[in-house]
Design a protein that fits this description.
The complex is a heterodimer. Chain A is an alpha+beta fold. Chain A is 56% helix and 15% strand. Chain A has 13 helices and 13 strands. In chain A, strand 3 and strand 4 form a beta hairpin. The two termini of chain A are 28 Å apart. Chain B is globular and about 50 Å long. In chain B, strand 1 and strand 2 form a beta hairpin. By secondary structure, chain B is of the alpha/beta class. Classes of the chains: A alpha+beta, B alpha/beta.
Chain lengths: 402, 227
C-alpha cells in the first residue's frame, strides 16, 4: 500500500464526483489536443505542399485562390494563361524551373492534373507500380487516389468535366492507367497526373476540332492555355523582382505560396485562438470543480486523516495523499482527453477525406502534446494544494474527540 | 513504563488537565476514570504525543516525549503507541485488511500481510478480510479497530471510552479482548472511561480518578474542547 494506491481507492470510493472531475478535465484536454493536432497537421501539410515553390503564375484574381487551387488543389483556378508565358519565364535568368499545370477535369472527385514528370519529382514522388506517364492520355495515380478510386494498372477511365463530382463525362477521350505512385504525404497523393497534352486533347475533341489535322494543330498551339506555372527561383534576388515583373503583365498574376499560406493561417488563427480559449476555460472549471470536490470531501475524511496520524503518519504524508488525489484525477482526465482528442482529429480527417482535399489523421502525436499533460497536472496540483494544506494541518486531538 | 509528574495542559488560556503524579509499571494496566469534560481524552492524547504538555514531565519507556521533535514523535507514536479512539474511524474506502495495513503505510514500512491475516484470525474476522466497514456489525468494527491499534505491537495501548453504548456482555468482551491483545504484544493498557463496569472487568488495574476539571468553573462554562 502506498500513497498512490490509497489515493486511488479513495477516488474510486466516490465514483460520481471522481468521474465528473475526470470528464471535465477530459473535455478540456480533448479540445486542447484537437486544436493542437489539427492545426499542426494543417500547417505541416500546407508547408510540405508549398515547399520549394517560390512563385505561382496564373490568371489575375485572388492570389490566395491561385495558391489554393494550384498548390493545395482545393479551390477553383482563377482562369487560364497563354502557353507562351512558360517560354517567357524560362528565358529569365532568375528562374530555375517552371512546372506547367493544366486543370479542368476530375475522376471520382480526384483532380486530373495535366503537368510534367518534374511535378512528381518536385514532391519526391516515386513509382510504386507501372511507370511514369509519357504519351497523352496516360495517367499516373497518386497513392490515395489510386486506393480510393480503385485504379488498376492497365485500366481505362474517363474524366468528368469540372473539379467536383458529377460533371459531364468525356467519354470520347478515355485515359489509360500506366502508373501508381507511392504515398508521399503531400498533395500528390490525391491527384491523377497526366501530360498537359491529355487535358488539351480531351477538351479539343469536345470542341469538335480534329487534332489529327496537322495544320489545324499548329494553328491551335498559339491558342493553347495552361492554368498555372509553378516557378522555382535560381536566385534569392528574384523574390523581390519577379512578382513585380509578372504582376505588371496585363493578364498575369504572381502569388507567393509562403506569403499566402501565412495569410491563411492568420485568418484560421483567430478560430484556433477562440477554441483554445474555450478549452482553457473548461480546464479552469475542471480545476475549480476538483478543488471543491477535494475540499468538501475533507470534512468527512477528517477522521481517516486523524487516524493515520495516530498510526504514526507524519503530516507530510497526509499532504501528499491529497496531492496525489488531485494529480490522479488530472492524469486520468488528461489521458482520456488526449485519446479523445486524437479520435476527434481522426474523425475530422475521415470526414474531410470524403472531399478529397485535405489529409489529416488522429494517429500521429507531436511532442508538443506532452505540454498538455503538464498543463493538466499543474491544474490538478493547484486544485489539490489548499485541501492538501488543510489535511497537513489536521488537528488530530480535536478530530478524535469530537 | 510511564512516569508523569506535574503534568499540565491548557487549551488557549483554559487549564484542561493537571496531573501531579502518575506511575505505571511495565505490563501493568490502568483505568483513567472521571466524568465527561475531566480531561481523560486529553490525558490519552498527551500520552500518545498527539498533544504536547505545557509543563511537567512525561516519560514513556524512559523516553522524554517533550524532547522529541514533531517528526520523531510521529515515528515514535507509530511504533510505541496503539490508539483506539472513541470513534472507531475505519476508513470506508478500504477493506478490513487494508484498514489494518494502514498501520504499515503510516509507519512507512512494507505492508505486513501476514500480521494482518494472523490478527484477523485471532479476532474471529478471518472471513471479513475483504469486506468493507459498512458491511460489518458494530462489534466487528470495534474488533477491526482494536486489531489496527495493536498491529505494530505497541508498548502502550490506549483506549478512549471503548465501552460507551455497549451492553454488559459486550462491555466485558471488549475489555477481555483489549487485555488479551495487550498481553499478546506485551503492552500496557490504559483505558479512559466514565463507565464503572470497566473497573470490574479490569481487576488489578491501577486506577486514577480525574476530578471534574482542573478549574471546574471554566470546564463547565466552556466545555472541554478535547472531550
Amino acid at each position: 500500500m502506498n500513497s498512490i494506491s490509497l489515493a486511488l481507492k479513495s477516488l474510486r470510493f466516490k465514483p460520481l464526483a471522481t468521474s465528473l472531475n475526470v470528464i471535465l478535465m477530459a473535455v478540456g484536454i480533448t479540445m486542447m489536443t484537437f486544436v493542437l493536432s489539427a492545426s499542426k497537421q494543417l500547417e505541416d501539410n500546407a508547408q510540405r505542399d508549398a515547399q520549394g515553390i517560390d512563385l505561382v503564375v496564373g490568371a489575375k484574381g485572388s492570389p490566395l485562390q491561385l495558391i489554393l487551387s494550384t498548390i493545395y488543389q482545393i479551390d477553383t483556378p482563377t482562369g487560364n494563361i497563354p502557353l507562351a508565358t512558360r517560354a517567357m519565364l524560362e528565358k529569365n535568368r532568375m528562374v530555375k524551373q517552371v512546372i506547367p499545370m493544366a486543370l479542368g477535369d476530375s475522376y471520382q472527385g480526384f483532380r486530373i492534373v495535366g503537368t510534367e514528370p518534374s511535378y512528381v519529382e518536385h514532391y519526391q514522388g516515386t513509382i510504386a507500380a507501372g511507370r511514369m506517364f509519357q504519351a497523352p492520355m496516360e495517367a499516373v495515380f497518386g497513392a490515395t487516389a489510386a486506393a480510393k478510386a480503385d485504379a488498376k494498372l492497365g485500366g481505362v477511365f474517363v474524366g468528368s468535366h469540372g473539379l467536383s463530382r458529377g460533371g459531364e463525362e468525356h467519354k470520347n477521350a478515355p485515359y489509360n492507367v500506366v502508373g501508381i505512385l507511392k504515398p508521399t504525404g503531400t498533395v500528390l497523393d490525391r491527384l491523377v497526373l497526366t501530360p498537359v497534352d491529355s487535358v488539351w486533347k480531351v477538351h479539343e475533341v469536345v470542341n469538335g476540332i480534329d487534332v489529327n489535322d496537322k495544320e489545324e494543330k499548329e494553328a491551335m498551339d498559339a491558342d493553347r492555355e495552361l492554368t498555372a506555372l509553378l516557378v522555382t527561383y535560381s536566385s534569392p534576388l528574384a523574390t523581390v523582382n519577379m512578382p513585380r515583373y509578372i504582376n505588371s503583365q496585363t493578364d498575369l498574376q504572381a502569388a507567393q505560396p509562403a506569403f499566402e499560406a501565412a495569410k491563411l493561417f492568420r485568418l484560421l488563427g483567430v478560430g484556433v485562438d477562440v477554441l483554445r480559449g474555450i478549452a482553457l476555460i473548461v480546464l479552469l472549471s475542471a480545476g475549480l470543480s476538483m478543488f471543491v470536490a477535494l475540499y468538501n470531501a475533507l470534512e468527512e475524511r477528517k477522521s481517516d486523516l486523524a487516524i493515520l496520524r495516530t498510526l504514526g503518519a507524519p503530516p507530510i504524508k497526509l499532504f501528499s495523499l491529497l496531492l496525489f488525489e488531485g494529480l490522479l484525477l488530472a492524469t486520468g482526465g488528461a489521458l482520456a482527453g488526449w485519446v479523445l482528442g486524437h479520435v476527434a482529429v481522426e474523425l475530422l480527417g475521415r470526414a474531410l477525406s470524403d472531399d478529397q482535399n485535405l489529409s489529416m489523421t488522429g494517429w500521429v502525436a507531436s511532442p508538443d502534446e506532452a505540454w498538455l499533460l503538464a498543463v493538466a497536472l499543474a491544474v490538478g496540483l493547484i486544485a489539490a494544494l489548499i485541501p492538501a494544506i488543510r489535511a497537513y494541518r489536521t488537528d488530530i486531538a480535536a478530530t478524535l474527540a469530537h | 513504563m510511564i512516569t508523569v509528574s506535574n503534568l499540565s495542559y491548557r487549551y488557549k488560556a483554559h487549564p484542561v488537565l493537571q496531573i501531579d503524579a502518575f506511575h505505571l509499571a511495565v505490563g501493568d494496566h490502568a483505568i483513567v476514570l472521571g466524568p465527561s469534560g475531566c480531561g481523560k481524552s486529553t490525558f490519552l492524547h498527551l500520552l500518545a504525543g498527539i498533544l504536547t504538555p505545557q509543563t511537567g514531565h512525561l516519560h514513556i519507556a524512559s523516553i522524554d516525549i517533550k524532547q522529541l521533535g514533531q517528526r520523531e514523535v510521529d515515528a515514535w507514536r507509530g511504533k510505541a503507541i496503539g490508539f483506539l479512539p472513541q470513534r472507531l474511524a475505519l476508513v470506508p474506502s478500504l477493506t478490513v485488511t487494508e484498514n489494518l495495513l494502514l498501520s504499515s503505510y503510516a509507519n512507512g514500512v512494507p505492508a505486513d500481510h501476514q500480521r494482518a491475516q494472523e490478527l484477523l484470525l485471532a479476532l474471529g474476522l478471518g472471513d471479513k478480510a475483504k469486506s468493507h466497514p459498512h458491511q460489518l456489525s458494530g462489534g466487528q468494527k470495534q474488533r477491526v479497530a482494536i486489531a489496527r491499534a495493536v498491529f505494530n505491537r505497541p508498548k502502550l495501548l490506549l483506549a478512549d471510552e471503548p465501552t460507551a453504548n455497549l451492553d454488559d456482555a459486550a462491555c466485558s468482551a471488549v475489555i477481555e479482548l483489549l487485555t488479551t491483545q495487550a498481553r499478546e504484544v506485551g503492552a500496557s493498557l490504559i483505558v479512559a472511561t466514565h463507565d464503572a463496569r470497566v473497573l470490574a472487568a479490569l481487576p488489578g488495574a491501577t486506577t486514577m480518578h480525574l476530578p471534574t476539571a482542573a478549574t471546574p468553573k471554566v470546564a463547565t462554562a466552556q466545555g472541554d474542547r478535547h472531550e
